[in-house]
């Protein structure tokens, strides 16, 4: 088990990267705490798999260092790093039985046979394949094969970290939930450092202690699910996490108020002068329909969508769409022409990055997510 | 949907039937006809029953040719399959050298068979051939026209030179289809190079290797042109394989009856072996599709 430090790390797949667009991974300086479960979340092609492969040693970074417990492993081969990794698509050794597959990483390291037996049994129970241990892996279904891959990733107890590269892509939805719960349980039991790559926010938020959001080769925020929800550090985090994502409105900031198209909106804190393109971001959870008397932003209400658990109100302000989430059974009042924002739920962004207030005057309180 | 029943559609099969008739059925029936009759010339034939078959089955000459044939196919398979795999494993996976390698590997396959025979016939000649002359200068007594072992070595070498690249190309195609994740997983699992070969590459190549073995077996079992050009079946009958012997019997001696019986049994042997291969291959597919 190890703390992982990324020191000034960057990677390009081109031999001579010129512009910033040539870098698959832009400069990173992060410390991944020993024993935490991280989820690496981002859209396809944002560099999350590259980062994972650099950590496991399958890819050599173009610049920077990577340290396990303060030992430089930048140029160490995968075998020396003692890492387990599970890939997106099942990798099983077809000609071996399920038992031999699970025992393979242990036997390659010369583990004693009775230990291998016991350990394989434990893992088999966890992935629910005890009854199929003596079967050849060849004829199994895709999700059974992926369970073997997961099992092979978890069979070694002494690994520095376990890396998962979108491992549940091929698994049935109901199995997904179960396996993720088992991974969580395993993490609690053994305390491995785990890094879980995914583009599914639900998966990330339910699996991880800390979610690392990546965008365009950069880590834009590392935080707990709650931090990502309440204080997105980058507009991408606001947009990518949450359903629907955060609303963004161009605004001018003036102390503790924002001016949006001539209307004043109260903020949850005192701000200094803000430079660059200024926007306010409000999650749909912090917006309520209101009538003309109670103030807010005058909007055109387009429609209300029922997504089961709650309703989503789709409105428009001077050509910009605004979504609001209505609590269950609340409905839209007949005289609603405005949208009211909870000051505590408003964040201020300059050139897509969050600006922290000088002084907080209203603490956020969540009513519905 | 209502199915239209029109028996005149069968007429559409007639052209195909005519082609098959002339290309396969009529020649085959001629051979069958010869195999059960005898003649003393003047195009007069009389019934011989299964005599020719009995004669061929108990003929030492045919037994000898069959033995040599089996030995030849066995030797070249034992050399070409492992060698082809080794070549495929050492070929580059990407970059400009891939095309260079592929072209070089295909060259022997593009050369007409009688030319291959001629090339090696000249190469091996002790007076002007590169290989023969060099060996003799080194004091090695090499002469493929007089020494049976030398003749065998030359024939086998020629076949290996000619056909190993087919196995290599097929194996290479099999290797290329293995997703990178398998190699990465093997690294993570700390599998040795041998285990990567044994548990990833070999199982993934199984399909193409079966085809390679089938093709090489069938081709080598009916080999004719190259040994005919190179050694003419000699010295003595040491490199007289089944088809060389068959041609000698049919066209050299004009023993049409025995030769016809011989061809039919030759045909049946190949049919039998191909059926065995086919069954084995479909069984593999079934296992993989499970």
Please characterize this protein's 3D structure.
The complex is a heterodimer of chains A (369) and B (290). Chain A is an alpha+beta fold. Chain A has two domains: 4-230, P-loop containing nucleotide triphosphate hydrolases (Rossmann fold, 3-Layer(aba) Sandwich); 246-360, Nucleic acid-binding proteins (OB fold (Dihydrolipoamide Acetyltransferase, E2P), Beta Barrel), CATH 2.40.50. Helix content of chain A is 24%, strand content 32%. Chain A has nine helices and 25 strands. Chain A has helices at 48-56, 78-81, 98-108, 113-126, 142-154, 173-190, 201-207, 225-230, 235-240, and strands at 4-11, 25-32, 37-41, 63-68, 71-72, 83-86, 161-165, 193-198, 210-215, 218-223, 247-250, 252-254, 257-260, 263-266, 269-270, 278-282, 287-290, 297-298, 300-306, 311-317, 320-326, 338-341, 346-350, 353-355, 359-360. A six-stranded mixed sheet of chain A has the order 6-7-8-3-9-10, sandwiched between helices. A four-stranded antiparallel sheet of chain A has the order 2-1-4-5, covered by helices on one side. Chain A has a four-stranded antiparallel sheet with strand order 11-16-23-24. In chain A, helix 3 packs across helix 4. The longest helix of chain A is centred in the middle third of the chain and has 18 residues, at 173-190. Chain A starts with a strand and ends in a 9-residue tail after the last strand. The model of chain B has no long low-confidence stretch (mean pLDDT 86). Chain B has 290 residues and is an all-alpha fold. The longest helix of chain B is centred in the C-terminal third of the chain and has 34 residues, at 256-289. Chain B is globular. In chain B, helix 3 (60-90) packs across helix 7. Chain B contains twelve helices and two strands; from the N terminus they run H-E-E-H-H-H-H-H-H-H-H-H-H-H. Chain B has a two-stranded antiparallel ribbon. Chain B has one domain (64-289): MetI-like (MetI-like fold), CATH 1.10.3720.10. Chain B is 73% helix and 2% strand. The chains are: A alpha+beta (369), B mainly alpha (290). At the A-B interface, strand 6, helix 3 and helix 5 of A face helix 8 and helix 9 of B.
